Amino acid sequence: MTVGIWNLKFGIYIIGIYIIMRVFKFGGASVKDAAGIKNVYDVLQKVGYEDVLLVVSAMGKTTNALELVIKNYFDKSPELNSSVQEVKKYHNQIIMDLFEDEKNQVFVAVNLLFADLEYFLAHNKSPNYNFVYDQIVSFGELISTTILSHFMNFMGIKTQWLDVRNFIKTDANYRDAEVNWELTQKNISKNVKRKTLNITQGFLGSDENNFTTTLGREGSDYTAAIFAYCLNAESVTIWKDVPGVMNADPRYFEKARLLNQISYREAIELAFYGATVIHPKTLQPLQKKEIPLYVKSFINPLLKGTSVSRGADLEPYLPCFIVKRNQLLISLSSIDFSFIMEENISEIFALFHQFKLKVNLIQNSAISFSVCVEDKFGNFKELNTLLSKKFKVEYNENVTLYTIRHFDENAAKTVEHNKIVLLKQLSRETMQVITKE
Ligand code: ADP
Ligand code: ASP
Ligand code: MG
């Protein structure tokens, strides 16, 4: 969109020099096969692609498949080569379904990327798991955007393929890198061309030595928000396999209903508690500049979906359910019946942070302290050894954490039905229940 602006110094109204971009994000589910990629083309035809930046994730479950490659690499498994071939086969099939002409440059471009991956596997000397993880897993997005960009060109839409690592600069905290906003802002302001369909990778960045970093699993929504923030974009649309943000994950709740509009605050709360339809880091940058976020269906792109904006009332007003499975409920109590006080609590939290356990609920009493955590990186065993030196540690594995925003009696009954409730916590707006099935 082109807008006019007032030049205050000279009192002139200047028309048509400032192009406001829209940022679209297409996730793994939307580009999982040739039909999906053709559908992206159809969506763009319907909603327009002028002044658009597309952020694209790896195709389907490619990131998981590359995680297997990483595991095989570190285990020195004989399956290493076959796991790489699986990823290759999957993408080759998609390319063959998309392009009739085997001379299309896409074949060369994708083969080159696989050659780079194989070169890395053969020559890497770094024993740093997280570093190696990012160097390997990033091929998912590099390959998907290469295929998508060639396909758009093939269909007559001119694109500009951007290597996101030249734009998003981060620290060297591999697998969970922190954005350097100042450098990122500079790169994006200077080098993103407007008036073109730009295509770039979600999830990736690079550190000061230009090594690839990643922003955390499912981080492509966040990439879209970073670009939108730095471009002062008109809006961000994340295209999903659901009609929008619903009052529950429709995979688990048959009667889930679409929320037409929600506030940033509500979206942050829902994402924070684990509504995986939006990555939790996505909202803050957008909220700061009041850039609206639309969550829409890539199957029905002309439907309204959900609009996330400032101060929007939850509409319709419904209890919202969030389920987090595979949680750990840990209870710590003092060995000598002394109180668990601020200094213990801060020490415990420092350890959770150090071992990268994400805390999803906290409850304390005089001599005990319970937390529900997610052990994404498998560090609990090691942490438990440390904690056990100072505290009596009890824990339940594999528990489920239900969160209900705007709960009512019926909603509470639904989640507790036929389950053993291990812990329950209520605040004004939110109820959390930990259950064992
Ligand atoms: P992407 O393809 O962008 O990675 P995701 O798979 O991460 O998309 O997000 C879409 C999925 O989020 C849906 O398929 C749905 O199962 C899940 N989901 C979880 N909570 C909600 C919710 N409240 N509303 C809609 N979808 C939800
Ligand atoms: N491909 C990455 C993942 O699966 C990032 C994303 O899809 O958002 O985690
Ligand atoms: Mg995803």
Automatic annotation (TrEMBL):
Pathway: Amino-acid biosynthesis; L-lysine biosynthesis via DAP pathway; (S)-tetrahydrodipicolinate from L-aspartate: step 1/4; Amino-acid biosynthesis; L-methionine biosynthesis via de novo pathway; L-homoserine from L-aspartate: step 1/3; Amino-acid biosynthesis; L-threonine biosynthesis; L-threonine from L-aspartate: step 1/5. Belongs to the aspartokinase family. Keywords: Amino-acid biosynthesis, ATP-binding, Kinase, Membrane, Nucleotide-binding, Transferase, Transmembrane, Transmembrane helix. It comes from Flavobacterium micromati. It comes from the Bacteria. This is Aspartokinase. NCBIfam families: asp_kinases (TIGR00657). CDD domains: AAK_AK-HSDH-like (cd04243). The chain crosses the membrane at residues 6-24. The keyword Methyltransferase does not apply. Residues 22-297 form the Aspartate/glutamate/uridylate kinase domain. The keyword S-adenosyl-L-methionine does not apply. It is an enzyme of class 2 (transferase). Pfam families: AA_kinase. It catalyses: L-aspartate + ATP = 4-phospho-L-aspartate + ADP. ATP binds at K25, F26, G27, G28, R251. One of its GO terms (cellular component) is cytosol. Its EC number is 2.7.2.4. GO terms for molecular function: aspartate kinase activity; ATP binding. Substrate binds at T63, E141. SUPFAM superfamilies: ACT-like (SSF55021), Carbamate kinase-like (SSF53633). GO terms for biological process: homoserine biosynthetic process; lysine biosynthetic process via diaminopimelate; threonine biosynthetic process.
